[in-house]
Amino acid sequence: MFERYNKVQKAVLETTLHLIIDRELQATSMSLIAKDSGVSTGNIYHYFSSKEDIINELYKAIVLFNGEFVTKDLNQADSVKERFHLAWRNVFELGRKYPKGFRFIEQYSFSPYIYEQTKEEAINGGWCGPLEKLYQQAVNEGMFVALEPRMMVQMHYGSIVYLLKLYQRDSQNLTEEVVDQAILACWNAVSKEKGSNS
Question: Contacts for 87-94 with beta carbons within 8 Å, 24 or more apart?
Answer without folding.
Answer: 87/127, 87/130, 87/131, 87/134, 88/156, 88/160, 88/182, 88/183, 88/186, 89/179, 89/183, 91/127, 91/157, 91/160, 92/160, 92/164, 92/174, 92/179, 92/182, 93/69, 94/66, 94/69, 94/70
